[in-house]
Specification:
The structure is a single chain. The chain is an all-alpha fold. 76% of the residues lie in helices and 0% in strands. The radius of gyration is 19 Å and the shape is elongated. The mean pLDDT is 89.
Length: 130
């Protein structure tokens, strides 16, 4: 689960770096737009990387950013699937990764491992009463 988030984050950071480099060295129509787009993609890539680190350390806060990343990945995958050429396999891979990660994040075992409680639930105080 942490690995899937790290994979997505790394892909975003690599894509963002590529966009910045092509904005600086290539001949885009708008260098500023290419560079800013690349920096934005890099910043977005840091979110799943931080979530992956938190998930590997079993931090409960990391589940939220990981879930949001996967939910955002689904429309991106859909857009890739509706395109042409090499983007279709990329959409299939992205959809498979996002759905797998969503499934893993929603499993009761994951919720338990991250020590996530329902809103309003209090920790068991049975051991403190004894």
């Amino acid at each position: 689960m942490a690995g899937l988030n790290a994979l997505e984050g790394a892909a975003l950071v690599i894509g963002g770096v590529y966009m910045v480099v092509m904005g600086l060295l290539g001949r885009p129509d708008s260098p500023q737009q290419a560079e800013m787009g690349g920096l934005t993609v890099i910043a977005l890539g840091l979110i799943p990387l931080c979530a992956a680190r938190g998930l590997s350390r079993r931090r409960s806060w990391s589940r939220g950013p990981a879930l949001i990343t996967q939910i955002i990945a689904l429309p991106v995958a859909w857009t890739l699937l509706r395109s042409h050429g090499i983007l279709i396999p990329a959409g299939i891979v992205l959809a498979a990764v996002a759905l797998t990660a969503l499934f893993q994040l929603a499993r009761p075992a994951t919720v338990e491992a991250l020590d996530i409680r329902r809103p309003g639930a209090t920790p068991d105080t049975d051991s403190a009463d004894a």
